Amino acid sequence: MEEDDSDDSEVGRGDFVETDEESGGEDECVTLEPQRLARPLEGTQAQPDRSAEDDANVRTAQVQREGAERQLRYTPHIVTFPGAAGKPSGMSGSQNNMYASGIPTANNPYAPFSSRIDWELARWAKLRGPGSMALTELLQIPEVPERLGLSFYTADELNEIVDKRLPGCPRFVRHEVLIGNEVCEVFYRDIIACVRAIFGDPDFTPYLVFAPEKHYTDARKTQRMYHDMHTGRWWWATQEEVERKKPGATIIPIIISSDKTQLTLFRNKTAYPVYMTIGNIPKEIRRKPSSRAYILLAYLPTTKLERVSNKAARRRMIANLYHACMKKVLQPLESTGISGLSVVTGNGTTYRAHPIFACFVGDYPEQILVTLGYTGKCACCKISHKNLGDHAPEIAADLRDLTAILDILDSFDTRPEDFLKSCTEAGIKPVIDPFWINLPYTHIFRSITPDVLHQLYQGIIKHLVAWLIEVYGAAEIDARCRRLPPNHHIRIFGNGISTLSKVTGHEHDQLCRILLALVLDMPPLESTISPAPVVRCVRAILDFLYLAQYPIHTDDTLALLDEALARFHADKQVFIDLGIREGFNLPKLHFALHYSQSIRLFGTTDNFNTEYTERLHIDFTKDAYRATNRKDEFTQMTKWLERREKMHRHAQFVEWRLVQCGAPPEPRSLKWSPPGLDLGRRLHLAKHPSVMGVTVEHVVTKYGARFFREALARFITLTNEPGISRARLEEAIWNIHLPFRKVSVWHRIKFVQQDPLTLKFKTADSIHAQPIRTDSRQKEVPGRFDTALVNEGSGGITGITGYHVGRVRVVFSLPKAARSILFPHEHSVPTHLAYVEWYTKPRSQPEPNHRLYKISRLVDERGDPICSIVPVKDIRQSVHLFPRFGASAPTEWTSFNVLDKCRTFYINPFSSKFMYRTLY
After folding, report:
1. What is the dihedral sign for C-alpha 281, 284, 285, 289?
2. Looking at the predicted structure, is the pLDDT value of residue 45 above 70?
3. Which of 278, 307, 558, 795 is the most exposed place for a label (fewest CB within 10 A)?
4. What letter does residue 872 receive in the DSSP assignment?
């Protein structure tokens, strides 16, 4: 939906209790830029002096964060659910064998297609190819089908093969709904068939989870760990409830998402898809569109009922229409959730499964629609609109009383005259038969999951950016955006951010990485108000945002999440004092109080992010619509989707026949790694250098490595004589002769990470060290020399201790002949080296308000940079620096020269989620 600001009679209530077990730039100058803040107002230039209490608080927070982060890397102590829960009930033929029974394969693995080229062309045509008319025109070129040996001559003939000779997938049915003298259409599939199709997909078989588990960080089971859905409290508690009635059950958590989306730009054509997936599939697979772990369950009516003139009545009718259609789609879960049904995995293992509606994923309007709430209120708890801005965790923990609401809904039959009044008093819309009313083990107010995209990025962050622009002025904010140094993870907003419109979630993500830099050292407009609370608010919200997206949590990290939110609420009054806000009654801000509770119940937020379903709109609605002739489009869209699904399934079968030769898929034995933390990265350099021979003179002049010879001489001496004294070292440096004139140079260092499931590598980070050059249009491109975090020898996987920030000027290797002359023990000398200019070491703890580490360029008494040669393998990752702008960003600074002109910086921990998790 578009974004706007015992016995069976007891089953369905869903209540449960889980059992345990520097710089200047402040002078006024003439500039062509818009007028910005020239000087800080008296008494507001600097942050308040840090006190001993501030240092103590920061140190305490640092220790807590260090301990919590360390626990995330522990191999968990796992407690499995006792008894027969999640155990197989039998064996049958594998899904591929069952699929083969519907195809006369003989010795042709591509059947019903005659040959490999016949199959490959068909697959290209249905999955990647042009429209039907273009395909038919291609096949009508004389001799094309004959020379290729094709079994089809037109697109219609290909469609007939797919429709009649390939085994089926869950079919769509069309159902008419009459409402307000208007006939609406809903297209949906049998949800049980969809569950069986996903559960039985051979690609998922090695990874399926069949029973809940409790994960702990220690053997004493004092610290709970949460990541995938089966580690949450909901699954365990629900399993206990089911086991009391039907022992040996395998729960299939049903995850439903609905969201209205635009199909056209000008005709205002919309679609209302409903997606489904299951919680048995690990989130690392489920969140990737290419894995096809989501299935399109239905297209709901998109009518606006414009013939109904009364707006209130129209809204009620649309809500009732939604719930009536959803009830039709989900009704099979009412019985099968209790009695169970037989399902088969890809390798033929049979389970007695209970598909149970567990979670709903949607934006705020969808959440309100599902829970029968009113816009402006919380979708889950009882808090009133006027109290939404309060930091009240105890109220947020008190969800709406489901039993009382169900009693009100039941009263429609017995006391219809009191129904509207009772609904109004309870704060719900008068929907007669919501879809969840009879779903077993379902508590709809608990089932609403966090929505990082809309609630945080396009909600809280959007508001915060607007407040900061109003406080400090768009000109200064934009000026700072243009003067940040480049980095692999950072987008430079060359035109600033104040004029951005229709900002996407990805753009808000990029904005968050630099947001704190935009308020450092800047005074508010009111001279009597300290700038510190504004800075603390920004830091707190960013901490909450990044912690909320952790792919694995413990009770300690969830405490840090709640503490970050509490810090924002403690300082938010500053925006009221500045006249920016009158209050904070924002439902999205309030819902942040529900995050830790939801994570404990259902696992981390990356299980349910609406960003995934937004991506599904492309595959399941927009591409499908473009394949139609715009007449009776939904009938054509559903048929197009069915054919694509058949082709995907047949591609699986063909691969099975060719590669696995009939063997069922076997689970891979993978070493446990913290899901999504990606702490293990591999340094990668290109096999061949960017420039084969660069003279030492050019290294000094073009690359800016002014003291390259001296630094290399020092490196050579220390490598050959590690214990040499300082006096002898300075003497030995001048006795070294370099027996070469040129070195090979690399312009980029990459860090790659491997997907633990697909085993594929992707670039996770990079460091540039490239001089000025000209592009293909003979335009000069400024040089770029990035900053990096260098391990001094004692640095760990996380933390700042043992690391030093340096600016990489050149990455090089020495000629092989010179190595044997310079190093008697050549085998101990790294092949790839880097010339680095150092910054001062950060203090043992960060600054108290913004909690950033401050560093400065490290120079000698003459003002020359201190530099060294280091092995490239000691470089841990790129690091982005925030310049210390002062009260106004100097106009002579640019993104390309700020690292040269500015003296003091702050280390940016928000450049990436990896950086945030490893630097604190």
Report:
1. positive
2. no
3. 307
4. G
Rounded to an integer, what distance in angstroms lies between the CA atom of residue 139 and that of residue 154?
6
Of the candidates 461, 547, 479, which has an alpha carbon nearest to the alpha carbon of residue 517?
A: 479
Burial 31-48 (b: 16+ CB within 10 A, else e): eeeeebbeebbeebeebe
As given in the structure block, the two tokens for residue 289 are 């569109």
What is the spatial distance between Cα 897 and Cα 874, in angstroms, rounded to a whole number?
26
Cα-Cα-Cα-Cα dihedral sign, residues 120, 124, 127, 131 = negative
**Range list of H helices, 247-297:** 283-286
Contact 472, 522 (CB under 8 A): yes
Phi, psi of 764, deg, nearest 5 = -105, -20
Q: What are the residue ranges of helices labelled H in 748-856?
A: 816-822
Contact between 52 and 785 under an 8 Å Cβ cutoff? The reply is no
Q: How far apart are alpha carbons 851 and 853 in whole angstroms?
A: 7
Confidence of residue 70 (pLDDT cuts 50, 70, 90): confident
CA distance 452 to 770: 37
Handedness of CA 298, 368, 543, 883 (dihedral sign): positive
Q: Give me the percent of the chain exceeding a pLDDT of 70.
A: 91
Judge if the upstream peptide bond of residue 130 is cis by omega within 30 degrees of 0: no
Q: What are the C-alpha distances in Å from 742 to residues 429, 698, 768?
A: 77, 9, 20
Specify the pTM: 0.92
Phi-psi category of 851—alpha, beta or left, where left has phi over 0 and alpha has psi -120 to 50? left
Half-sphere exposure (CA, 13 Å, Cβ side) for 496? 15
Cα–Cα dist 250/208, whole Å = 11
Q: Is residue 762 within a helix (H) or strand (E), and if so which, with residue range?
A: strand 761-770
Amino acid (one-letter) located at 705: A
Above 60 in pLDDT, residue 43? no
Listed residue (323, 518, 545, 530) closest to 435, CA to CA: 323
Q: What tokens appear for 60 in the block?
A: 């305490």
Phi, psi of 648 (to 5 degrees): -65, -45
Chain position carrying tokens 């869209």: 637
Question: Residue 106 pLDDT more than 70?
Answer: no
Instruction: Determine the 3-state secondary structure of 651 from DSSP.
Output: helix
Q: At what angle do helices 532-548 and 555-571 cross, to 10 degrees?
A: 150
